[in-house]
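Possible race condition, two jobs.
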Amino acid sequence: MRVYKSIVAVALGGLASTVITVSAMSGTPASAAPPTPGVIANLWNWNWKSVATECTTVLGPAGYAAVQVAPPQDSMTQGGSVWWDVYQPARYELTSKFGNEAAFRSMVDACHAAGVKVQVDAVINHMTGMGSTSYGGYAFGKYNYPGLYTASDFHTPTCAIGNYGDASNVQNCELVGLSDLNTGSDAVRTKIAGYLDKLTGLGVDGFRIDAAKHISPADLAAIKAKLTGPAYFHQEVIAGGSGEAVQPSQYTGIGDVDEFVYGRRLREHFLSGQIKNLNGFGESSGLSVPSDKAVVFVANHDTERGGSTLSYKDGGTYRLANVFMLAWPFGTPSVYSGFTFGNPEAGPPSSGGGLVTDTDCSNGQWNCLDREMSGMVGFHNAVRGTAVANWTDDGNNLIAFSRGAKGWVAINNGTTAVSRSFTTGLPAGTYQNLAGSGSVSVNASGVATVSVAAKSAVAIRAGASSTPSPSPTTPPPTGTATVYYKTTWTTANIHYGINGTWTTVPGVPMDAPCAGWKKKTVDLGGAATFQVTFNNGSGTWDNNNGRDYTLGTGVSTVQNGVVTGNAADPCGTGSPSPSPSVSPTPTAGNTATVFYYKKTRGWASANIHYQPTGGSWTTVPGVPMNETTCADWAKKTIALGSAGGLKAAFNNGSGTWDNNNGADYAIGLGTTTVKDGVVRANAPEPCVPEPPDTTPPTVPTGLTTTASGTTVRVAWNASTDNVGVTGYEISRVTGTGAPLVRAAGATTYNDSGLDAQTTYAYQVRALDAAGNRSAYTTAVSVRTGDAPPPPTQGTPLGGDPRDDTIYFVMTARFYDGDTSNNRGGSQNIRSGNAANNDPMFRGDFKGLIDKLDYIKGLGFSAIWITPVILNRSDYDFHGYHGWDFYRVDTRLETPGAGYQDLINKAHAKGIKIFQDVVYNHSSRWGAKGLYVPPVYGVRDEQWKWLYSRKDPSAAYDPMVEHQGNDPDMTPAQNEMAKGRPYNGDLWSTEEPTGNTCRSWGTPTQYFSPEGYRIYNCQWPSPTSGMFPSALYHQCWIGNWEGEDSRSCWLHEDLADFNTENAQVQKYLIDAYNRYIDMGVDGFRVDTAVHVPRVTWNRRFLPAIYDHITQKFGAGKAKDFYIFGEVAAFVNDKWNRGSVNHSAQFYTWKERKDYSADDVAAALEQYDYEEQLGPGNQPTSTNAFLNGNAYHAPDHAKFSGMNIIDMRMHMNFSDAQNAFNNGKDSDDSTNDATYNAVYVDSHDYGPNKSGFRYTGGTDAWAENMSLMWTFRGIPTLYYGSEIEFQKGKPVDCGPTCPLATTGRAYYGDKIEGSVTASDFGVVSSASGPVATTLSQPLVKHVQRLNQIRRAIPALRKGQYATQGVTGQMAYKRRFTEGSVDSFVLVTISGNATFTGIPNGRYVDAVTGDSRTVTDGTLSISLTGKGNMRAYVLDLPGNPAPGRIGADGPYLK
């Protein structure tokens, strides 16, 4: 059970009754008694169809005893945006987001057929946190569930859990506001038992009791006693401190208990300790229940989000902990497979209405660990009941032990491979590695010499030998099928079904008639066909990607997923059992032997998915690379026939891919190695030790340097190498200074931002993959010229912001105009960006300047750019970790292409610049010029890689990065130091004078991810005393809908300003005045909700408008567009009932006088407005027509801050949903025609999805048609015009390459030249950008921009839906001065407009003209994303007629 957020929603009408009935069901439990111990697969939040498939194809064949599934009952719905809605039951009908009752029953039956028991996550402690509507369409109140529970069925009087030392409080009060069932009531117990009996009647075998800690053991025992049959229980009783009144041991008399301490301890040992200390791991290690009562796990859905255990994000470490769990004799193991996430609140991948989509382990959205652990499940089953023996460790992070004479495992959690001899306790033989690839040979003494790679494991067991088991050879009977299976497995079984009757898992052994083939003859009786799967007896299966193979009589071959019927004998003989002495004839044709390096990615195994030249791709995920090879490598030999090569991508079988950043790998004949993105053709076998490459590349020749202003172009001729040149290093020296070294992948380098009239000397050398470096070239000197003159300050363009459409770019990820300012930072290698040659700071202002015509050609007249101020953190390309608010980040600027240049050149093309600004927080290292906290640091052997040597003359400059070449550091330390800018200004070993951080420099109990001891005051935090309370807040946010969300830190990287302090206010106001002076046209305000509204209204907003007025005049101030991010990530009108946290709230002035002190005023305002609540907030008609008439809007109460339309954003899973929700909120917004409207962004997709929008091209087109014609200002996140990175995680920090996320580099798509002759009109384009501009959504958005620009009512008009029938249809009008524009719009479907003015209407899409004489116009329309916009022809305002040419959607 997690700490749920309270959910506030409006209860809907149409209540339905709910009656629990228990009747005879076709399903029956898999056994008549509670399940015996065995491995549980926790397929959390998988839908029923996917669970059924997994049981059949993976869990059953692998030997899993049970599957645990998500709560199946109907629950409150948040439209799929969150995962926790299913833990708020609405009724006990089986209508959940995972499927209906029929699908659930089918899932149970399928799992039982595979020999897998089914356990259900049962939520019986509570119901919901507030009334709403369920996934099944059932309306309910918090204490009223028609036909099920009334208020008398809940604990009264209501109270909140607050004292875990009081059992009554814990078990009789509400857990985070969830209505707490009175489980002491017999009536309630009977209804709960009825629900559980209903499930067992469908065949369910057991239950995981959610929140069992909050039900007294007596109540839970009484409920269990009411069940009509036996059922296995394991109970969620989270172990707290010894002072807690409720302990897990109190529940062992009822059933097993989920052992939470187990996963916490494993995290400590595997992440920050030494796994050698796991020797003897058990109750004496502080675990809360005995082994025979414990269900153990490395992670579950709560702990992976809360951080108390490891998670899939820990990569190989997480996998090793699971290997240990399955090998070690304690408890019943549970292997967890869930979905990947960036936002811990986000729900699983879902479709319309929040229904969970089918699990796809190959798309990166799911983590299918149950598959990776299949071999270890077989190990666990084989060694059950045996004792640990032959324990070995290296005193650190390598351990090995045997389990009796049945199994042996070695786990290396270290960073280097370990080779040694181990006593395994197993008989002599060769055994398959069940925890990875390859095999292990054990001699007659039971000893094996094994090399265990870093972050990997080896596990072998009796019965999993690599020696094939012979089968008797008998002549095939009539009605038979002879099956040949091509494989590199040493042993293969065929598991088959004839007329629905299958062999017992794992099937029957196949013979080995010749090299590379397995064979079995099967008696089909009278059947003409049968279904077949294959496995290696150790948990690895080939089931044709879940479809099974269908074979017929006679001879069939199965090779690389391809079935050939009536085939020739591939072993070249008609004999059913060829003589061993006959040498097989090799298959004719070309072959490619591919080696893939797994170690860097932490993969245990690899598949190759390939396409021979001129051929077809293999079926995803490809074929296993399972040929015997050495540690760290996977190998596959591929028969290509006449093909001369192939394209390939690789994956680990669990959804993680390496496809060469979307380009795939080109591989030729012969032996090829693929290592860390580098393809080496005609390579020696990597497992045969090569003589070390000690030959350096040749010295580059022809070095030239050319100065242009303060930029120097360095060029040279390429070097050669016996293996291959991998790059170059350019050394630059000024006078007698130390050389500064830069890296280049090509033979040119632009060095910009140099000092004017200064002589620089350059040298270049080449390097290869082995680290060999050539000698430097002879130095060539060059003198720079004059610096370019500073650009003149700009002036805002002005004009109503509603006339614009906005293109949103992350500057550092858009287009690289100058490579010399590219910087990867300290996380370049760890993130995987270095391997992709994709530094985090890649795009720049020059790139934006170069591509202004691309943006204009799309039709956009405003660009919203991410923050430009100088940032300071390990991963700050996004701009939200501001350190020097008075300085533009140097990684974005180059001479002649600074921020002022961008503003001026954009203005010259009629394009506005809206700058993202941050008032809420600074970087974790404070804000230069306001306060920079001193932190503890020490340059010892553990930490000197992190801390720069002190240099009084040095200052923080992210353009100057550590080169990783410090002779006083080890290679490993240099690698960690590489990319770090100077930080000697921050740290001190001695406690500085005036320090306020508590316990300066004392060691803590914590360790860094590298395993190093952490000290107090080493890292900034709000609670350490490190920051002065006058300037920074001193707490963490605990309630995101509470007052603390405005006065506490929201993230460890974001030091929260005390924005009610006058010194802080002046610092920020003065800083942002500098950018106003440069001529920016507006501010997008980041995290606006975390600053009290009264502070905005008193201080910051007036300061902005006053300064613009003084500088540029009142007209420019009126047109300056401020739009705030008031992040309400919910689907309701008011953010869970909290007005202070709702977007529209920030569009209003204060309506009461508060104390003069800003701190007191913020609290007074919060309490006052919260008490008034949603029902007493001001309303507005500014967005609405009066009938058909426009009226002058009343902005007297407007605060000055417009908003991002969070409600439409959250509901843009489909346009209709966004439209309905948008209309519902408009009366509470001061003027919704100014809302910034977008589908997705750099933070989230719709419904708070952690992935870029993946609704499909048609859905995108429909969303755009709505955004461009409905009220508000359309805003598009870069690349959405081509569905760039659709379905990719929005962000994963430095844990994965940027290229795999929604923040990938876009420049490759817009290389080439483009010229825009007008907004939405491209006169010429060449190169990749021309291809991009030809895409369907590009054409769509270009025409939408043309239409919108031509019709004032679409830009600034009020709207109405009265007298309008149609799904998305509305009328809009704008009247001002001589302008009078009236338009009728329908999107994607028919509409009828009644009561409209008579006259001639002309459609802007088709040019169709209609004359209305009776006030009615009916429009017929088909095509998702299509639209009609009929404009009334008025005197002085003629209808523009057809605008633009037909495209893929508007036609």
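Job #2 (started ~2 s after job #1):
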Amino acid sequence: MDILKGNDFADPHVLACVLYVLRVGIADQLTESSQRSFLGFLGRKLETADCSPSMRVATLRILSYLLNNLGEVPVEFKNILDNTVVGALCDSSSHVRIEAALTLRALAKVDPSCVGGLISYGVTTLHALRESGSLEKVMLVSEFGGTNLNLELNSLHGQATLLAALVSISPKLLLGYPARLPQSVFEVSKKMLSSFSRNPLAAIVEKEAGWLLLASLVANMPKEELEDQVFDVLLLWAGPFAGNPESYFRQAQDLAAELYVLSAAVEALTAFIRSFVCPTVAAINGVLLQPVLAYLSGALFYISFFSSKQLPNMKSALALFTARTLMAYQSIPNPMAYETDHQQIIEICTSPFSDPSGYEESSSLRTLLDKKDACLGPWVPGSDWYEDELRAFDGGKDGLMPCVWDDDICIFPRSESISKMLVNQMLLCFGTMFATQDNGGKLMLLNKVDQCIKNSKKQPWHVASVTNACVGMLAGLKSLLALRNQTLTVEVLSTIQSIFQGILAESENFPAQRRASCEGLGLLARLGNDIFTAKLTRSLLGEIVAATDPCYIASIALSLGCIYRSAGGIALTTLVTSAVRSISLLAKSSNASLQLWALHSLLLIIEAAGLSYVPQIQATLFLAMEIIMAEESGLVDLRQEIGRLINAIVAVVGPELAPRSTFFSRCKSVIAEISSCQETSTVLESVRFTQQLVLFAPQAASVFSHVQNLLPTLYSRQPILRHLAVSTLRHLIEKDPVAMIDTNIEENLFSLLDEETDSEIVNLVCSTITQWLHISCVSCPSRWMNILYNKVLATSARRIASENYSGSGNNKSNGASEGDAASYFGEDDEDMIASSKGEKIHGSTSTFGSVYKRENHIRYRTRLFAAECLSYLPTAVGSNPAHFDISLARSSVTDEHNLSTDWLVLHLQELVSLSYQISTSQFEGMQSIGVRVLSIIMDKFGSTSDPDLPGHLLLEQYQAQLVSAVRSAISTSSGPLLLEAGLELATKIVTSRIISGDQVALSRMYALISRPLDEVKDLYYPSFAEWIACKIKIRLLAAHASIKNYVYQLLKEQEDIPHEYLQLVPLFSSSSTILGKYWISILKDYTYICFGLHSKFYYTPFLDGIQFAVVSVEVKKCLDEVWPLILQATVLDAVPAKFKTDDSLKLSDEDSNKIMFLSGHSMVRLEAIEFHFLWGLSQLIMFQGQQLVSDMQVKMFFAADEKRSGVSVPQGTRDSMTSCDIALPVLQSLVNEYFFNHGFLSSELCTELLQLLVYSHIAYSRSGLVISLLSQIVQFCPDAFFESEDFTTSITELCIKYLTVTFQRRDATHYFSGQDLLVDLSAIAKKIAYKTKQKTKWKLILAIVSLPHQWYIGASTDLSLSKVAYFLQSIVPSLKDLLRYDAEHNSDDNTLLKTVLGTWARMLATLSGDCIKRILIVDNRINESCKLLMKILVFYLEETISLARLVHEIKLLGQNSAIDDIIWISIFKSCTNCISDIILNNNIQVQALGLHVLKTNAQRELAEGSHQKNQSFILIFTGELLGNLFFLIQRTWKEDVSRESLAVSEDCLKLLFLIHTLAQARECQRHITVLLLEALYLVFSQCSGCHSQELNEVNTTTKRMVSRLVQIPSAATHIRDSMLEMPVLKRQQFQDMIRASIGQGQMKMHDKLNIQPAPNAENKSKVQASHFRQAKVDKHDDNEEHNDDAQDEDEDDDWDAFQSFPANTASVSAIDSRDGKTISEPALCDEPSTVNNHLLNQNNGHDHDLLQPNVCEQDNDAQDVSPGQTKEMMSLNMEEFEEGSSTRYSNERVAEDTSDRSCQDLYHESSEVNEDSTSTVHNSLPSTELCKDEEPTMEKGKAVQFEVEATDKASDVCIEMHHDAMPAASEDTERNKSSQRQFYEGEVQSVCLDHGDDSDE
């Protein structure tokens, strides 16, 4: 430093040397503590009086370096900062002021909290200096001999320089900068440039400072900050450049100073071009570019103006201005944009060739030449880059000052003189102009260059001219390659070639010029075509042979190498051999320089040729070995070049390099030999050899050997070696991470990081450690825990790389280090952390840790990075559950087969302990990291159970540490990062079960979070960016929102919510006013940022600063995570602002005990405008879709009501969260009765919402949310809403849409949810139908009815079929009730009702026809598809009959006109025609289904007894079908008789018998009796005399029917009367049939009555179906033996009894055989004790087609027969009738038993959803279970269960209901649903069994 003392303006070279010594010799050798002391020493040095400006510059530059290296500002330096560095801003030397600004910039990087204060101070000072008027005063001499004006001007320049420096780094600061500061700086800059001082001297300084500030702003500020004022910025250059130049300079007193100001203006314009006029801003390029070009044209005019004047003292200023202008032009991307200025620019740029004596030698070759050729000179790389810069330093006293706003600060001050800068820019711009000219222009420029070189020979400036020519031409060729706008002619190529070869031919030229010419020839070969390239190469090969000058030969050799490097290609492949042979001969030369250049050329050819060089590899290796063994091989440069040659060979051979081959051994030997001298360059090649093996030949050596070779290099004093070693280790980590785990290299890397001073190497080491952590931590987390523990907590100790690992493990820290750490890290509060002393973490001995390191403290930078690595640890271990589940981890440790036993959860105590100590340490920068790690621990281990304490979480034992960390983080003294992390951790703790049961801890946590709530609005950090305060506000309010949502989730899920959480509810209620206000403000700000829904100029946000783009970008990132939580919390239990508790009396809640609010308290009170904002925001969220939730990473605690929606809504993160999951629950909270009652919701708002839902694409899994919302609207909206056609239409469309969506789901995964949704949709549809007006109501009914029927016919699976049936089962009865009600009360105008019913009937007929067609298409075999279609057909038939019944009832309700009667009859007729078409179908299966449906309905009406109370609907309905039935019987016997046709014929007879039973006591009974008798005779006559078993069985059945028919008194009378009217022959035939039937029937009945005694009536014991089956089989054989013998004897008596029946008797008595008591037939039918009981049986078949005989007409002892006995006797009587038909199907008893039981159970479970409203058992219908254990009890007047005969033996076998449980058609009452569903399943199964072929049985 004494060298610089007393020298105000020291030589720049001396200053550079001093800086090098201070940095490399002193600063880099000091420990961190010594560097702190040295920092204070240098600061005090600035206060000394004898400190010259040069000393101040050097001191300030080293201070900047030390601050960057330390990473923090020591306290002792802060105390002297104001008097030293800040005071230097007013220094008289501009260089000192600039260095002071750079020092404060470095300080701001490590301590961002000072940025705001410094900028505010600088802006205030500038305003004060300008507004005080002092700059307007004349210079006053002060008492110290100085001037006050100069002092103030220096202060103004210093503050402006500081502002420019701070603005440049502000966007890169961790905590940002206040957004208002750039705007204030811009305002100051604009005032300085537009309203500067009238004092000329002050004006110069003021304008220069203004342009400096403007340049910094436009270069570094985000474009968004200035986009609104970009044209205002452009206008600032209009004054100096767009006006009259002469008038502008006429006002200037000092033209040189004014030119310096213009230079600053052009520099600012260059920054504007680079920031705003670039290819990425194509939209406004044209608009912004034109004024810029105009300004630059003005600058060219100034240059020509002053150049022609030749004014004194203007040369330096004009040179600077010219250089700045040329730099501005070069910054424009497309040089053709300023084509009009090309001529003037060329005149300027060719000046070094026009007047070579007036310009210096250019220094641009160093940057233009290829760095790979640097070993050839003149800038040979040294030990480190800093030394290389010193050796290449070429500064001057008039050199430029450092640019304070540029990222790349010059290494040494005044590194380039203005004159050298001018010639550099001229030549670079010359190259650009050369590339844009046509071939003629290029030749003109080339001729000028060539002429300059020739004319300058023998002149002192010849070397400079040659160098300048090389720079210009090299720049031009590179520009040509970049532009590629035209092809060069041969003349141009030849001219360039001759110029370069002419330069090479001059032996006195320097290496830089020769290298430039060689590289130029290489670029020329690339610009020419292949022919030119080959010709050029051959020409140079010929030159090598012919030339004699060693320098020229060496240059030609290098030119060949450059041609291969630049051009390569196929054209040169054939010349490789000749080129290598020629150059190899040169490499054997005794001339060292020629040898070096030849070897380097050979290297370039190897790298370019690739595999085509393989044949020359052996020869090249022998050449290298020959040179090594020569005596001249001692030259370091030769050794280095040989090493490069070997490395290039390894890269070419690659995987083909065998580990133990001779070739590989020779390569290693050569590398070992060249590196034996231990020179930096040769050792570098040795390390690079290892890197080449790792990259291209990993099989050549082991990872162990590589690491062993690299470790010593890690601690080399040469930065280039350290950098290469680290990069090679990184390649090893990437190539073979498994092998690297055992090397324990991480400790070495941390040691290197702790001592490294080079920033580039530091970044490389940090990225390598981070990558290695993520790779290796999966298998060894404990090792990383140990390393990080030592790095974070260690203090002073002798650092040995392997000290932390020994064979048996090692203590985390010894006693000394624990004691030393106490001053930095907090003690365990209240013994919360278990002591780590003596605890060991498993590790392995480091093989490579023997390198000694000096004694020092761990640097703060290293501690900080280690803490960051700790935050990566819980994530880096991967997703293996054993890392996070202690039970799995323990079992894995004991498992011998498991290779890994190191799990993170086993070291959770150490992890929490270390994180807690970091969070409470005295290093403020690390505290937030510790809290953040604890938050990550909460995420990873928050749900892990503690196996030692069942029912508890693992983290509960660390509750004290977690709560303590939060308590220390959330305090008034905490920094913003720490406070934000603390709020996040507190939220996670409260919303987990860690503190569950600890009321005190929960209250403390909530108090900590609530404490800042009152001050949140005024929260502000003046030193940081506004988004810092915004994020704190957001985190605080999000914490409250998360806790509220979590409490509500507990209220929703748990009946017994923990009391400690329940106590929070009143707290939320009391603070809901302020919370709601803030939450809504946050949401409004979010809409402002995302959608711009508010004016930027008039909107006053809650989050200050979001009007600025830089703030809004950061705030949006935070809001994206939490806005759903805030929105959700706002609406939970929200009420209108004027809501009162008394309003609950107005609510129409069905459950009077239901609490008004979920929490029992009202929360946020919403004004109408706030409600409408939330309403609109929710709709906007749905409209935007995933655009809003793409970045969301938040848990939605209070998800949609799954029970109501029927769909499980995922409560996950952004991968599963959708916009519907956010918006729909919010809308559900807003669609509440309070808001309807207070007028917040109108029909228009609801209509808009409904239309949005109609047209939105919402996933099926979220359908439940929409349906739940729709249900709320229908339930709570006023009835007046349904008067609006738009509202009614929209709500109907939405209901229909989701009906369609639900029916479309054919998969089984959503089956149960689909059933739930259908229940809700049916309820919604009912409410809509009842509330809407007439016209819309009928449309809805038609849609609801037609839609499921259409999906029914398209159902392809049982699940989809059952879903549709389930819905119809729920909705159709209600719709029919509605139709009945409307027909009864609106009988005057029922046109729409008729239209609906008519359409319904036609639809059913059409669908039935389609179903029949599909049945006919499928195979006749009974398969699943056929069964499904038959189920559908059965349903349609039942629905058709039900609809006909409805029409029948409606017709009877009102007084109809003749026209109405015709319409009703036509609808009724349409239904009967549908049934008629089915029973007359040619397909027997279809016929059977139709007959079964008719029988079922007839049996149901008969069992219910409804035919006795009013008109019999079935009698009327089937009356239309009697002719069809008789025709079907006739057709059956006319065609070929089969088993199936016989069954159909038999079904017809049974149906006719049922119709006859229904017609008793009616006028039509006689006609039906006659028809039945005719049908019986038809069958009897066809079966008589046949010996077929099937016909005999039918004949037997027919006889039994006749026998039962004639035993009915009324029927017997009608038969007798009709027979009297018959012809004699026909009567005789009928008598024969009756005689044959009566004899057989009486015998059978007599036998049956004696087989089974009646059970005791008092205990009502039940007779099992299995007993009847056994009795039936046994007795059948006995009866057959004597039946024929007795038949002839009894038939005469039977016939006599028949003849004695009275004729035309209305009421015929039945005589009891025991006491002769007479009972009238009508009385018997109404007697519940007799009829109701004996009509019930235990039949378990599926046909249910038995007749209804009158038991009272049997010869039974009525007075001794109990109801139970009567039932049993009737059962026996019916079994006699069953035997014939059951035998017929004895071979068809299919064991289709209960294989589908599970599916049946599944359906039962789905049916139980609506069990409250729907009866699952219908007592009026027969059961389908195998063994009915309980006899149904029937009340008087209710329907009775009618026992029917089974037509096949399957009546005794219970076929379990199919898994879809085919439901019955809907009836008029809810109680029919379940039993019908079971019944029709049995019906279809029975039909399938009856009519299937043998193969299907």
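Strands lie at 796-797, 810-811, 840-841, 856-857, 1135-1136, 1165-1166, 1710-1711, 1718-1719.
Logs attached separately.
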